[in-house]
Amino acid sequence: MKYINEILIVDDEQMNIDAITLMLKNKEINITSANNGFQALDLIKQQNFDVIISDVRMPGMSGLELLKKVREISLKPEFIVITAYSKISDAVAAVKNGAFDYIEKPFSRDALEVTLEKVNREKALKAENILLKEKFHDKYKFENIIGKNQEIQNIFEIIKVISKTTATVLIQGKSGTGKEMIANAIHTHSNRANNNFVKLNCAALPENLVESELFGYEKGAFTGANKTHIGKFEYANHGTILLDEISELRFDLQAKLLRFLQEKEFTRVGGNTPIKVDVRVITTTNKDLEQLVAENKFREDLFYRLNVVKIQLPNLNDRKNDIPLLTYHFIDKYSKKYNKNIKNISLEGMKLLEKHNWNGNVRELENTIEQAVLFCDKEVISSRYLRLENYNFLSAQNNIFDSDITIAELEKRKILKTLKKYMGNKTKAAEILGITTRTLRNKLKTYSQQIQDED
After folding, report:
1. Could you tell me where the DSSP H helices lie in 307-406?
2. Which neighbouring-strand residues pair with 199?
């Protein structure tokens, strides 16, 4: 257990301390013990412990009281409480007050090892969190674009090269992949950074307004044109213009855009005087422009004018190794926004994010983390705050979704399949399922009763 080196065992019965020490004999872990809470506190003030394992019911100072005092001193050691089955409410109270987990008496070596392995993984996750935060400002962050995936790293390099040029750029990618961020990064690192960065969504405007928005119009050009209107190209002079969803541009306007790219001039609607401007053009689309060209839905000559530099953004499902990095970035971002003190996400929560099918890409992940931060009242986001409605990973594993199956039946099948996979080991199965051993036993008891009732 790489991240667990020092453990403090607190119990008023020496035989329990000896039993735990024996269970951990071959784990290369330094064991320290205390027979009461007061002695434990003295040790904690003098020495750094990775894990504290404490009985709940002790004379003088209970395990719950010890936990509260430990948290006043340090957040570092993970706290595990030991309790009798009949006193399970004590353990629940301890977890609510910051304990990592609890173990029921009498417990086996397997139960102890599984719990400590969970602690080890949690600590590994925290260590990775610190490492990732340290790297935000160098290798893995470019403006607000986050990623260690090789495709994203390659895009960073492309941006650095093309930013200083005037070449037109076509950015392709599904919705939510960060196309606008890439365009903004190109402008920010260009020689035009001190001038306007103008955006126009070609799909958001009514077709009859796109031309006047792009090129502007003269007073009296049409009914309601009471004064001259400066268009986006004119406003972006010496800067950059982003034409979002360029695939939605009307065919006749494609010809006018092509003419502008060739001649660097345009005429306002209702006007006769050509206006010259110096504008860098960046376009984005969530469609395959080459396919649209082949279908005669987009001008081929315009495509080649726009496609001087092409940046293809990968889907989040194709760069899932970036999910931890992005998650920590969004936790940090929204913790500051909502004045929260959230530092981490649980191991189970991260697993859930990595299994999820991100059809909405990075934007969906960001929205998920923002919502979790908003509702989370602890320092660590647990899986219950991740309101994900996509269960495709279960479907892929079990292939059991149909119109008649209930959620309860789905849960039952998942539990029984997991239990079978681990040859009846309830402790291991409970860990994999993300529930307590006690909850698993209660579920199995319910299933057994259902079978008896059916008979």
Report:
1. 323-337, 347-355, 361-375, 392-398
2. 242
